[in-house]
Amino acid sequence: xxxxxxxxxxxxxxxxxxxxxxxxxxFLAGGTNLIDLMKSGVTSPxxxxxxxxxxxxxxxxxxxxxxxxxxxxxxxVAEDKLILKHFPLLSQALSAGASPQxxxxxxxxxxxxxxxxxxxxYDLALPCNKRQPGRGCGALGGFNRMHAIFGTxxxxxxxxxxDMCVALTALDATVLIAGPKGERTIPFGEFHRLPGxxxxxxxxxxxxxxxxxxxxPFNKLADHAHYLKVRDRASYAxxxxxxxxxxxxxxxxxxxxxxxMGGVAHKPWRLTEAEAVLxxxxxxxxxxxxxxxxxxxxxxxxxxxxxxxxxxxNTIVEALKTASGRV
Length: 327
Ligand code: SF4
Description:
The chain is an alpha+beta fold. It has 12 helices and 12 strands. Strand 4 and strand 5 form a beta hairpin.
């Protein structure tokens, strides 16, 4: 690990100013991914700006929904009464991620900023365009069992590893950001990005910007929500495929549907076409199967992950069945 300096800040403005002073500086929150990246030499900041003292760990009710501070711990959010009441999908997704110890350390903002778990990205001896642009992508013709089937490019087929972000995408959250030019908001679905020709960029955050909070608008989806994660082990494993499903059902018909997938793309993958298929239809397995077919349009596999073309639609159907109560 490279030597680095450590600065602890307690206000938003000093945090932003500290990052602006040093081009290699990075914010440190829970550190559950960043420290691994530093130990393996993937990331080498010369300064860490510890933001844990900032007052950004609350969960508050606003006029239109809930605001979750960027430093709220994953375990605290998962068990919060307001979250359980209004957004059980988020609670389920958080509880499906990592391990209890990691959830006790990891923050909401850090969860959003975590990087892909592609093995080639973490091994400095192997080619990876995300770690070293222009070096090639080892996963394209190599071991790609965990990799993407949607939104890939010729340069990168990695997936975003978060469960929490899948739920926040489905729930139409927005991200509040502060930076040298002031505050702005980004729809959650636009925070992460596809690899395109610049796979080294995971998200649309600008240099020096700080995630302040995530806002989730109230909805009528809490009674029929389910997060289904398919993985190699029952716990402490990243998703092969995951589905966040939330439905508003009245009289057996679906009034509104929200669906997003994890483990299939460089960003949490919102299933808008499938949502349109579900809307206004009876909550039956036949409807769910049609929605899953719509969701799979444009999917492409790379050998090791061919099984996801079957696993993904089946996971969508199972998640919808459980969310609707038709199991
Ligand atoms: Fe690197 Fe992306 Fe290829 Fe993995 S899939 S080796 S992260 S470029």
